[in-house]
Automatic annotation (TrEMBL):
<feature type="domain" description="Xylose isomerase-like TIM barrel">
    <location>
        <begin position="26"/>
        <end position="249"/>
    </location>
</feature>
<dbReference type="InterPro" id="IPR050312">
    <property type="entry name" value="IolE/XylAMocC-like"/>
</dbReference>
<dbReference type="Pfam" id="PF01261">
    <property type="entry name" value="AP_endonuc_2"/>
</dbReference>
<dbReference type="InterPro" id="IPR036237">
    <property type="entry name" value="Xyl_isomerase-like_sf"/>
</dbReference>
<dbReference type="GO" id="GO:0016853">
    <property type="term" value="F:isomerase activity"/>
</dbReference>
<keyword id="KW-0413">Isomerase</keyword>
<protein>
    <submittedName>
        <fullName>Sugar phosphate isomerase/epimerase family protein</fullName>
    </submittedName>
</protein>
<dbReference type="InterPro" id="IPR013022">
    <property type="entry name" value="Xyl_isomerase-like_TIM-brl"/>
</dbReference>
Length: 249
């Protein structure tokens, strides 16, 4: 069975990291996570951050970089990933004013252009979904389908978020199977079953985790499972500990 390492998306611990970035990384390592997906570098230069991660025994699984930064500072983003030892950079989010059909056309062009540059340097660009990309465009396709059908699969990969796919009424395993050769990163999240469909620790029961995890040990190309919980009802460190314990069972 293929071993797929588990990373934590640091956005989950954004409040803790804002107070003590290095100390929070130390706690993540202490819980047993093998890597982190970065959402900012805590004010550190990439080289210093790499020293911190190495000292803690953590890998930089990937980095979430805002779209404007990906567009305007592509070379610096690539150089930072090389220093960090990260093979993946992720376009994480589109602001509400960036979601018109024309915006998606521009996004596709940008992803192809940025992705080609990244691929030429041994870095893979991934696109991370929420639920809004599942709305239909004028040709009947969803925005998410259009993004992956109109981008070059050699240049643009997927980071599917299984919570948001489920929230939008989709089956995450079907998306993973459809794009199994383009899905190196998967955001593992669960959903409460109390009617609110709120973010829950893994094992909460609202997302079909079993089919997703089974996919990882099948014909897919998953390199990292990445735990994220956008909002936590329990203390966030307690939540990410529970999610990791669930996966290790």
């Amino acid at each position: 069975m293929k071993h797929i390492p588990i990373a934590l998306q640091m956005y989950t611990l954004r409040n803790e990291a804002e107070q003590d970035f290095t100390g929070t990384l130390k706690k993540v390592a202490g819980l047993g996570y093998e890597g982190v997906e970065l959402a900012g570098y805590g004010g550190l230069e990439a080289r210093k951050l790499k020293e911190v991660l190495d000292h803690l025994g953590l890998k930089a699984a990937s980095s979430h970089i805002p779209l404007a930064e990906l567009r305007d500072e592509t070379e610096k983003v690539i150089d930072d990933q090389k220093v960090l030892g990260s093979r993946y950079v992720v376009c994480p989010y589109l602001a509400p004013e960036e979601r018109t059909e024309n915006d998606y056309i521009r996004l596709i062009n940008d992803l192809n252009e940025i992705g080609e540059k990244c691929a030429g340097e041994g870095i893979a660009l991934c696109y991370h979904n929420h639920d809004f990309e599942l709305t239909s465009l004028s040709d009947g396709r969803s925005a998410l389908e259009t993004i992956f059908e109109e981008t070059n699969p050699e240049w643009v990969k997927a980071e599917f978020d299984i919570f948001w796919l489920t929230f939008a009424g989709e089956k995450p395993a079907e998306w993973l199977e459809r794009y199994k050769h383009r899905s190196p990163l998967v955001h593992l999240k669960d959903m409460t079953t109390d009617g609110e469909r709120f973010f829950g620790e893994l094992g909460a029961g609202g997302v079909d985790l079993e089919s997703v995890l089974s996919f990882g040990n099948g014909s897919g190309t998953v390199d990292w499972w990445i735990v994220e919980q956008d909002e936590c009802r329990n203390p966030p460190l307690q939540s990410v500990k529970r999610s990791l314990e669930f996966l290790k069972k």
